[in-house]
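Summary of Year 1 activities. Much of the first year was spent building the evaluation harness for sequence design. The harness presents a backbone, in tokenized form, and records the residue chosen at every position. We chose the following record to illustrate the format because it has been used consistently in internal testing since the harness was completed.
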């Protein structure tokens, strides 16, 4: 059976990523959208008058910050290019670290920006950036301004996982990996595209036939992993690989 692709990212990111997958594979793959989380803004911004540098680790943080009319004249750091682009669209002066939390921390410590810094974060995080920076000598506070609410796989997604065909599942966070496998009892092979080693480690042992990790924690690198998994599955089936 031909492989299918199950995208669990929250909307609207999931639908946009599906469009990129279709364009990259160059054919008409079966793609099912089933967000495993939804994003909800929460909490209030602190008094912003004393903060000299902002830190964003997702577009959701940027959106939640702007929804509270956070000032856009404070210099900022973003973990990656997509997050930086969201901040720049709002007129913010932002440096992209083009990597993961470790790259972000290293860049901030190397630059020694004016402190205190403020990390605008979600309820669930993979790395405690504020703590790491503060312990290294750069005073950093944090504000939780959005939460990732657990969702349920749709009936279409559950049916896809039960029909025996290979299913490629891109996973973008340890929490999405945890939630997905808590709800999954697949009858066919699951092929995981993991955006980072943290995500790879969150996949329970024995639940995926194959796991490939992106070279960088970016959407473009994830597309490359999906193409690799797609071509491998198509070769086993005897079909034509993506170009």
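For this record, the design step produced the sequence shown next.
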């Amino acid at each position: 059976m031909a492989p299918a692709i199950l995208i669990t990212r929250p909307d609207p990111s999931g639908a946009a990523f599906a469009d990129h997958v279709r364009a990259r594979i160059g054919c008409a793959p079966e793609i099912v959208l089933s967000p495993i989380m939804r994003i909800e803004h929460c909490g209030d911004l602190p008094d912003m008058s004393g903060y000299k540098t902002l830190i964003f680790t997702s577009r959701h943080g940027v959106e939640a910050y702007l929804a509270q009319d956070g000032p856009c004249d404070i210099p900022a750091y973003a973990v990656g290019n997509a997050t930086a682009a969201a901040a720049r669209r709002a007129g913010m002066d932002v440096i992209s670290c083009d990597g993961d939390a470790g790259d972000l921390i290293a860049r901030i410590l190397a630059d020694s920006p004016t402190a205190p810094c403020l990390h605008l974060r979600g309820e669930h995080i993979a790395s405690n950036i504020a703590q790491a920076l503060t312990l290294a000598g750069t005073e950093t506070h944090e504000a939780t301004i959005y939460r990732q609410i657990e969702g349920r796989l749709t009936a279409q997604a559950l049916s896809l996982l039960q029909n025996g065909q290979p299913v490629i599942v891109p996973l973008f966070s340890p929490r999405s990996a945890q939630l997905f496998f808590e709800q999954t009892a697949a009858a066919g092979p699951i092929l995981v595209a993991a955006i980072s080693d943290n995500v790879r480690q969150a996949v329970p042992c024995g639940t995926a036939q194959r796991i490939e990790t992106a070279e960088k924690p970016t959407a473009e690198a994830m597309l490359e992993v999906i193409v690799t998994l797609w071509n491998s599955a198509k070769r086993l089936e005897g079909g034509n690989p993506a170009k």
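Residues 109 and 138 are 7 Å apart (CA to CA). Quantitative recovery figures across the full test set are reported in Table 2.
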